[in-house]
Design a protein that fits this description.
Layout: H1 3-27, E1 36-45, E2 52-62, E3 69-71, E4 78-81, E5 87-95, E6 98-102, E7 108-109, E8 115-116, E9 122-123, E10 141-142, E11 147-150, E12 153-157, E13 160-164, E14 172-174, E15 180-182, E16 188-189, E17 194-197, E18 199-201, H2 207-244
Antiparallel strand pairs: 1-2, 3-18, 4-17, 5-6, 5-9, 5-13, 7-8, 10-11, 11-12, 13-16, 14-15
């Protein structure tokens, strides 16, 4: 296998990975969804007659850029406004697999008047406890710091958990059901982030840019397949000529 074939093979593998990632990003239109970004590393092709370098995607990281804010006017919907660009703030959720995190603030009350997320899991306060409402709590106001105020006083306070991006680039990973999992790190309670009541953060995918990227990758894949077929045809014709000598 020559240099050109090695490069086409690796490029084809890279393109399939990027196609899968681009399609996944576009398919997710849930509140608070964050896209993935590939990290590339320069690699050297071995066992060829010349040293050839190429770029290979070796990992993905989460793109924490903000999505747009969409007004819903639902009293229990909340969107996060990060306190600074160096940190990301998340809601804490109590799941059967332990504490997970999310940017999706589409909350509601279950039959026990507990504040839960779209999956029915409990939303956590800053101290890690679950938040329960009284049946008589109707006109609830959620303050910018997450405090929930009703006619009878403060019901609870939605926890805002912060992670420093630079220190935890590989330690916050996507989990099931749209959650994030913190690996071997602890969150701090944010004193700077705020919430906006009656609103949700949209996905941070740019659909126009995402579709353009998807089309580019599909065109790349078609070109790679054509070049691979051309090389195979050239080899076959060369073998045919040699056989006739």
């Amino acid at each position: 296998m020559n240099n050109a074939e090695y490069l086409l093979l690796h490029k084809n593998c890279n393109t399939f990975s990027e196609l899968s990632n681009a399609a996944n990003n576009i398919a997710n239109n849930t509140p608070g969804f964050k896209t993935d970004i590939f990290l590339y590393k320069t690699k050297r092709i071995k066992d060829v007659d010349k040293a050839v370098l190429y770029q290979k995607p070796t990992a993905t990281i989460i793109n924490w850029n903000h999505g747009g804010i969409k007004r819903t006017n639902s009293a229990l919907d909340v969107a996060i406004k990060d306190g600074n660009s160096e940190s990301v703030t998340l809601f804490g959720i109590n799941t059967k697999n332990g504490v997970r995190y999310t940017r999706n603030g589409n909350f509601r009350l279950d039959n026990s008047f507990k504040l839960v997320d779209v999956n029915g899991n409990a939303v956590l306060s800053a101290d890690g406890s679950e938040i329960f409402f009284n049946q008589s709590d109707v006109n609830n106001i959620i303050m910018s710091d997450g405090a929930i105020i009703s006619e009878t006083g403060q019901v609870g306070k939605i926890g805002l958990f912060s992670f420093h991006k630079a220190d935890n680039i590989f330690n916050i990973v996507k989990s099931t059901d749209g959650y994030y999992e913190a690996k071997n790190i602890a969150a701090s309670v944010s004193e700077e982030a705020e919430v906006i009541q009656g609103a949700l953060e949209e996905s941070n995918i740019s659909y126009i840019a995402g579709m353009q990227k998807l089309l580019e990758l599909q065109n790349d894949n078609a070109l790679i397949n054509k070049l691979s077929n051309d090389i195979n045809d050239m080899r076959r014709r060369a073998y045919d000529k040699i056989a006739k000598l």
